[in-house]
Amino acid sequence: MATEVNVPTLGESIVEATVGEWLKQPGDPVKADEPIVSLETDKVAVEVPSPVAGVMGQHAVAVGDNVAVGALLATIEAGGAGAAAPAPASAAPAPTLASSPAATAGQQAPASGDTPAALSPSVRRAVLETGVDPATVKGTGKDGRLTKDDVLAAAATPAAPAPSTEPVPTPSVAASTGRKEERVRMTRLRQTVAKRLKDAQNTAAMLTTFNDVDMSAVIEARTKYKDLFEKKHGVRLGFMGFFVKAACMALKDVPAVNGQIDGEEIVYHDYADISVAVSAPQGLVVPVIRDADQLSVAGIEKTIGDFGKRAKDGTLKMEEMKGGTFTISNGGVFGSLMSTPIINPPQSAVLGLHRIEDRPVVRDGQVVVRPMMYLALSYDHRLIDGREAVTFLVALKNAIEDPTRILIDL
């Protein structure tokens, strides 16, 4: 008896997803609660588990297809671990590697290696283009699966030439140039990011104001207390905890920066839900630190550390990336000196942090070297005036240059 696997509920207001990758192929043994397919939504990738143990049946949809909540994805057939799922007469045959040089030469993959049907589309395309035998390549992906990089690395590694009396063919001009192109479908996440950012530019009267901040005091405090902090709280003391707390204080002083436009009304928030941009394998995601103004520096650092880990694992939840009243984006970790970040609608402002570098500055009439960072505040000029933007940045700068202000809420 076959059990249907349908698209699960993906979160409030999300009614559709895109099939990103099949993790199980027809005939593969499947355990209960084992992921069988990855779906891409507007915000995250979601792995759909099998409701029962059995054998993977036929896929009802292909990679790249859009599927609605509740739609049929596949079936799980009853049977032992080695049983093969029956294929309907109208089903198309599984893709093969007959066109690759390795397959033409009569080489067969051992039973323990990835079969052609078990390869993802990008890996299968790389195998066909390079002629690499997938059975001879060790996979570094999840559960030992082959990745595209594995295939390309194997293709780039010269194999030992076999003795032959046949003349060596002269390579064609096209092959010697090495010019290649690859078309890859945009993920749903990337499509959504592109649309939202362009909408922000088209809707908001966006302007960016800059300032710089002397990081000496924060660096000194971090150096002095980082070991004790990590020992007590189990998390490293970074710079983001200071900036989030300083931003929360500045948002209280300038509430317009923490507000948003809703039609003909302005919504002011008496709380600070801070969105922090985090890099993930599928792209940039922006989870939200709820009630950041009520958290300590340690609480903020723990939350950010957890977000970063789960962003890499792909386990962030939908609800963790909804809402947010203000965003902080740290391009400095990638070496950015200065940028003009784009607002994350419906928010009205975003703070950009950049790399810290020693620069000459004047202090008490003397030129001295200080670790300096540029700050950038992009904001919707329809709601936030230039005076308010500058006031916000100055309040933030004062708190970072004198961290005692954060402790006494000054």
Description:
The protein is of the alpha+beta class. It has helices spanning about 100-105, 120-130, 150-155, 175, 190-205, 215-235, 240-255, 295-315, 385-400, 405-410; strands at about 1-5, 15-20, 30, 35-40, 45-50, 55-60, 65-70, 70-75, 205-215, 260, 265, 275, 280, 285, 290, 325-330, 350-355, 355-365, 365-380. The protein folds into two domains: about 1-160, OB fold (Dihydrolipoamide Acetyltransferase, E2P); about 190-410, Chloramphenicol acetyltransferase-like domain (Chloramphenicol Acetyltransferase), CATH 3.30.559.10. Strands 9, 12, 15, 16, 17, 18 and 19 form a seven-stranded mixed β-sheet that branches. Helix 7 packs across helix 8. Residues about 80-115 have low confidence and may be disordered.
How is this fold's topology laid out?
Elements: E1 2-6, E2 16-22, E3 29-30, E4 35-40, E5 45-49, E6 54-59, E7 66-68, E8 72-77, H1 101-104, H2 121-130, H3 148-156, H4 173-177, H5 188-203, E9 206-214, H6 216-233, H7 240-253, E10 260-262, E11 265-267, E12 274-276, E13 278-280, E14 283-285, E15 288-289, H8 297-313, E16 326-330, E17 349-353, E18 357-363, E19 366-380, H9 386-401, H10 404-408
Helix pairs in contact: 2-3, 7-8, 7-9
Give a summary of the structure in a few sentences.
This protein is of the alpha+beta class and 410 residues long.
